[in-house]
């Protein structure tokens, strides 16, 4: 029996196990939304902006492990997703984004709200295609979900012309996928992995560097087991934080631009760098000529194109982190690292990861307050100083997880991502750590949070400036604060976040003293009727330390 494209669309979503779609309406997708509503089995979440919509799908995907699904209209609906799609691409988040398109006969005629969505997004997606024949619609959607979640995950865009949506065609939806030229690696080359293990077990000063690929693969238990079996110390990238419990005795912290002194020095002095699931971007390596200069480098990554792209490695292993670690754990045995660990601990004692003046209402005290009040939770961050303080001081384990924007560093990511995580895990507390600059990028989503019954706790660190850039101006640009002050010296700050919270139906709490931190967070945790915005008034001169100036060696740290 033939059915309309819109009916096949809903059938496909149900077959793929989709329970939620983040959608913003428009003329050319009204048929699709109408069909979803008539079916009644898929929740439609209505955000207030298409960029936020995709970030919400990202948060949903990262919290649940499922594919995040989006639906937007043509033209500005599609172009508004570009930043968030790029964010998902660089952080390897599985997203399938359906975009409406004008009818096929109108394509190329500058029709109302017509843009070349696939052309615009070609370099920021794993795959993108316009459905030009109704008979291709089923297998294209099937392939989209497969491509998004296999291999190195990432976003896929399917462009659906209006006439395809209403045209009749076959009702069958494929059960299998066979894409010529796309055969993601599902195993591991045992010979290469044995070389990697041999290299590690012969080391005297080894370090495991865990990146976001470990978290994406949900391989935290396997990594922890491997570290414990071998006794090898672990450091992480910001995206890899939480891949091993931050309280674990073998874990020493984050490496890189704002990494701990001991971590960066350990990478410089190690003889084997055993890296898993990291791209070795510039925030981790600094000056490539001085990155792990004495080490043999093992690199395990799902993406063969990432291996030896930035850092030339000695032992490449193309594999999903979980698959590789499961195999490594079959061979793992104790390595003599006692003296090496004592040396790292001595560096850590010499320059511990502490704020230089932790008195009063400091970011460190706020993060430790979050640790105390929220246990089983997801913590999202926006981008800026608050992100680095969260990455430095929030403790993570099996029950407390962090979601952040690493590759693109997208201001405005954290709050919608928190909403998406809460949609996916409604019974789990979700906290967004944000700044007054980042929050204003997508603060309209307070309406989404309250209308969708997702009571997220927003911890807003308000220093009245764009802190990360201001910090660079302070240290490297003669304290010329150009375009980073968000208020004039004698004027009131705009907006008043407490009044804004009230306007959106949220609870607002302003914190000005250190002793108010815990009571405010406990009050926020108890409020399940709406979002709670806790505004912490911090000093504009607080800085994130350590810090490595861009392009310098990571051992050349401002402490």
Account of the 3D structure:
By secondary structure, this protein is of the alpha/beta class. The chain has three domains: 3-169, Rossmann fold; 190-350, TPP-binding domain (Rossmann fold); 363-537, Rossmann fold. It contains 23 helices and 20 strands. The strands form four sheets. A six-stranded parallel beta sheet has the order 3-2-4-5-7-6, with helices on both faces. α1 packs across α2 (30-39) and α3 packs across α18. The longest helix has 15 residues, at 50-64. 54% of the residues are buried. The model has no long low-confidence stretch (mean pLDDT 96).
CATH architecture of the largest domain: 3-Layer(aba) Sandwich
Q: pLDDT average, as an integer?
A: 96
- Individual helix count: 23
CATH superfamily of the largest domain: Thiamin diphosphate (ThDP)-binding fold, Pyr/PP domains
Number of domains: 3
